[in-house]
Amino acid sequence: MDKIKIVVVGGGWGGCAAAIAAVKAGAEAVLLERTDMLLGTGLVGGIYRNNGRQTAAEEMTALGGGDLFHVMDECAGHKNIEFPGHAHASLYNVYEIEPAVKKYLIGLGVKVVTGASAMKIDKKEGKMISVTARDGAVYEADAFVDATGTSAVPGNCVKYGNGCAMCILRCHSFAPRVSICTLAGIEEWNGRKKDGSLGAMSGSCKLFKESLSAEIVKKLNETGVCVVPIPAAANMSEKLGMKACQQYATKDFAENIVLLDTGPAKLMTPYFPLEKLRLVPGFEKARYEDPIAGGKGNSMRYFQFANCSHSLQAQGEVDNIFCAGEKGGAMVGHTEAVVTGTLAGCNAVRHAAGKELIELPDALAVGDFINHVTDEMKRDECRGTKYTFSGSVYFERMKERGLYLCDPTEIAKKVETTGLSGLFAEKIC
């Protein structure tokens, strides 16, 4: 019998996790990424294990799906740090992480194809059977994972943001994102900002460390965090409502510049006018690394979530597409993408093998998160909310339900009570 084949479209954290899960389940996995690097916005990110993300990372490890968290740990420049509103955070180095993840994928047997932007799909008898890339290459599979995200369409940045900010997504050079769910006729929805307009702006920028004062750089290198009060003349609190990352839309982030050391200096704000930024002591020579126009804007995200079940199966004209990362709903963050990608990749294989799809239990944070968010996305009034283990409404839900745990041993024991320990390490086919 031929080996089950899974094609994952999109090489962000969710797509990488899906490809890993598919291979571990016994399938062949092909990962298509439209640019020349994996991880997408993960090349700007770097924060994990903060607040409820620690719970999620350890649950996934106990479930047999902790591979990418181990890679992050190996590339972490700082561990167990605190910054406003966030405890026990780790910061991976954004310059080191992509080669490390790519090496891990290839070592597992994932076929990674870069420069492969999806253009069209073929369907037959209620199933997707292939995706065609921009170069004409055709990739057939038994099931597919849509990990294309919800951004990288320049028109959205212009229409709903402050214009193209020339960000890490590089859609002008590598073509815009194309969702296979869209091509397959899956029902999709848009997120909204607080003012009702569509989408949300990415929530952080990168500054060149070399452009900052020696004192700031020393603090970053030693502790991983530097908090600098914003003078009244440079206040930009009104921009917080635009952020995709609402866990950082708080008074602390309105009144201070919060920098994190992720290799560059990670600026926790969607943008900051350069003339105002340079009024802040220590930032007189500040220069943006990403986005290039970070003084004006950032990428726009949260367009086109797919209608998904708790198993992350896309609901529509075909039954063999599963969704990872932001494609599955307004889920913010790398940890969240790894969690959804792992389940999507595993269920893609299970579907192809004719086995029952997995829905993670509400007794676990990762299960409650997926089940809750996919339910909430079906209600129009909920699509303006962003969900993350690290703060805002979902972290509060975690605490209220007793799901927020930090100790790895305690978390492993809880997973064991569900009977699902090692679930994502099991061969299916």
Automatic annotation (TrEMBL):
Residue ranges of coiled coil? none
Q: What is its cofactor?
A: FAD
Alphabetically list the UniProt keywords.
FAD, Flavoprotein
Question: What top-level branch of life does the organism fall under?
Answer: Bacteria
Tell me which residues make up the MnmG N-terminal domain: 5-251, 276-356
Q: Tell me if Flavoprotein is a UniProt keyword of this record.
A: yes
Annotated protein name in UniProt: FAD-dependent oxidoreductase
Q: What is the lineage of its organism?
A: Bacteria, Thermotogati, Synergistota, Synergistia, Synergistales
